[in-house]
Amino acid sequence: MTPNTLPFLPFALPEIGQDEIDEVVDTLKSGWVTTGPKAKRFEADFTEFLGDASLHSMAVNSATAGLHLALEALGIGPGDEVITTTHTFTATAEVVRYLGADVVLVDIDPATLCIDVAAVEAAITPRTKAIVPVHYAGLAADMPALLALAKSRGLKVVEDAAHALPTTCGGQLVGTLASDVTVFSFYANKTITTGEGGMVVTRDAELASRIRVMRLHGMSRDAFDRFTAKVPSWYYEIVAPGFKYNLTDIAAALGIHQLRRARAFQVQRQLLATAYDQALAALPLLLPPRPQPGDMHSWHLYVVRLTDAAPGARDDFIDKLFAAGIGCSVHYIPLHLQPYWRDRYGLRAEQYPHSQHAFERLVSLPMYSRMTVADVARVAQVAARALGA
Ligand SMILES: *Cc1c(COP(=O)(O)O)cnc(C)c1O
User: Fold this and answer.
1) Using CA positions, which residue lies closest to atom 8 of ligand 1?
2) Whose CA is nearest to atom 5 of ligand 1?
3) What is the tens place of the pLDDT at every residue in 320-333?
4) Omega before 332 cis (within 30°)?
5) What pLDDT does residue 316 have?
6) Measured from the CB, is residue 134 less than 6 Å from ligand 1?
7) Of 138, 207, 270, 311, most Cβ neighbours within 10 A?
8) What CATH architecture is 18-260?
9) What are the extents of the domains in the chain?
10) Distance CA 366, CA 327 (A)
């Protein structure tokens, strides 16, 4: 059997079960389709999943929205600088520009592909207000070092945890660390999905209150609450020009059941990652960075890098995989190469040698919970042929 006779193996696919479908149908029949009881339940379930009752979990319609709300609540605005990694999706950085603040992009640590803490430290100026690390591919960034640095310099930390459900750092789930806010994504290809959606998590009651208000038009009932015991159901006050970032109950219905399966999905992804590690070991590929001993990697992505011993370029490798019916992707075209970011800040590739080096060589291989070990073997076989092994 030649690989071409097999069905196309996509790079990512969601795993939606009957429970999700039934819950969505129940929501549709309930008459309550926008934010309501299911979104509330999803938030409570999320806090329970993280295992820390002091957390506020707030459902939003994307992680991009969540990152925007987090930085807004922290008071980021014109004149401020926010430091993040060049090796990410544009959403991580664009939200800083929504607020009129400036983005300072720094390089990655080639050992982890996550933000380089020494580069963060070197980029701090009197205007710096916050750091936004990304747990790239589902491997935790060096949070102990980043949190210590942020504390010593009086900076806020917002974790872009779009890849990191569930990921641990020092044995603690991402979402329960000492950062100010953590934001998860439930986009279609993430480890759990609501189609589009996200969750904002914080321990800070004041930040939570601001995020809740700004999530829905700047609408508040708190002002009224202060003066009277009984608030009429129709009463609200607009306290700010807020956003429309709430998650629908239709989406939350999916999320409730996806969250229940998050650990099982991680186990399957871990199994696939281990199978990849073994099947690819002899090829001229640098395998993905490992988590610290005892820590959990969500394996949102399985990213390999062609070594200098590999024949041909990364682009040819991807073409050959596609020709053999295997989808893959590139995470990411670094922001310093994107016209908007490059031109706005006059960025040059030489400023980001590690991200640039990784970008030129990396490929994200298919990785999703519905894949099988046989699928991994098929990818490895095609990869071996493409690399002339
Ligand atoms: C997917 C992703 C986002 C954006 O998530 P949405 O829910 O699509 O807004 C942000 N940052 C990173 C690193 C991502 O991968």
Assistant:
1) 187
2) 63
3) 999 999 999 999 99
4) yes
5) 97
6) yes
7) 138
8) 3-Layer(aba) Sandwich (3.40)
9) 18-260, 262-386
10) 7
Residues with Cβ within 8 Å of 152's Cβ and at least 6 positions away in sequence, in order, are none
> Does the beta carbon of 248 lie inside 6 Å of ligand 1?
no
Alpha-carbon distance of 132 to 337, in angstroms, equals 19
CB 175 within 8 A of CB 182: yes
The most distant pair of C-alpha atoms in the chain lies apart, rounded to whole Å, by 76
Mean pLDDT of 137-144: 98
Question: Band of the pLDDT at 4, cuts 50, 70, 90?
Answer: low
Q: What is the pLDDT of residue 363?
A: 98
Ligand 1: atom nearest CA of 300 is 15
Q: Does any ligand 1 atom lie closer than 6 A to the CB of residue 27? A: no
Please report, for residues 14, 105, 106, 141, the alpha-carbon distance to residue 119 in angstroms, rounded to integers and kept in the order given: 36, 9, 6, 13
Q: How far is CA 122 from CA 106, 129, 154, 173, 384, in A?
A: 9, 14, 15, 28, 41
CA 322 / ligand 1 centre spacing (Å): 25
pTM exceeding the 0.90 threshold for the entire prediction: yes
Q: Which pLDDT score, from 0 to 100, does residue 221 have?
A: 81
Handedness of CA 233, 199, 115, 349 (dihedral sign): negative
- pLDDT for 1 beyond 70: no
Helices 249-260, 262-280: inter-axial angle, 10-degree rounding: 60
Atom 1 (ligand 1) nearest CA: 162
User: In which element (H, E) is residue 64 found?
Assistant: helix 63-73
The closest-lying atom of ligand 1 relative to the alpha carbon of residue 160 is: 11
- Residues 123-151, mean pLDDT to the nearest whole number: 98
Q: Could you say which of 3.90.1150.10, 3.30.240.20, 1.10.1140.10, 3.20.20.70 is the CATH number of the domain covering 262-386? A: 3.90.1150.10
Q: Note if 230 is an active site residue.
A: no
Q: 359 C-alpha vs ligand 1 centroid, how far in Å?
A: 18
